[in-house]
Amino acid sequence: MQPGYPQQPQQIDNNMTMSIVAIFLFWPLAIPAIINASKVNPLLQQGDYAGAQAAAAESKKWSKWALIVGLIGWAISLLCCVLGGMGAIMGGNSSTY
């Protein structure tokens, strides 16, 4: 780096996009992800790179858990709907009134 030039601030991904996607799958875990993601840029502007990295890591952790729990929940409910529909078809009453 040449003297006299300002140092380029380190860029840290705040994971806001993943947090917003996660809110549609399982919002209770996505809320802490969004809160932590919103802390990253102000911490970077203050020069607190360690705090920004910690907030980004927390955001990523909560987002991943929200995505995992949400996708498992959707898969279980889809499976229940399919099995319930098949059970209704198989066990239908064939007698007429």
Describe how the helices and strands are arranged:
Layout: H1 16-25, H2 27-46, H3 49-90
Helix pairs in contact: 1-2, 1-3, 2-3
Structure commentary:
This protein has 97 residues and is mostly helical. It contains three helices and no strands. The protein has helices at residues 16-25, 27-46, 49-90. Helix 1 (16-25) runs parallel beside helix 3. The longest helix is centred in the C-terminal third of the chain and has 42 residues, at 49-90. It is rod-shaped and about 85 Å long. 23% of the residues are buried. The model has no long low-confidence stretch (mean pLDDT 88).
List keywords for this structure.
single chain, 97 residues, mainly alpha, 3 helices
Helix share bin: over 70%
> N- to C-terminal separation?
89 Å
Tell me the radius of gyration: 23 Å
The proportion of strand residues reads under 5%
Total beta strands: 0
Helix-strand sequence: HHH
**Tally of separate helices:** 3
| Whole-number mean pLDDT | 88
Shape: rod-shaped
The assigned structural class equals mainly alpha
What characterizes the major β-sheet? none
* Low-pLDDT segments, ≥5 res: none
Summarize the structure.
With 97 residues, the chain is mainly α.
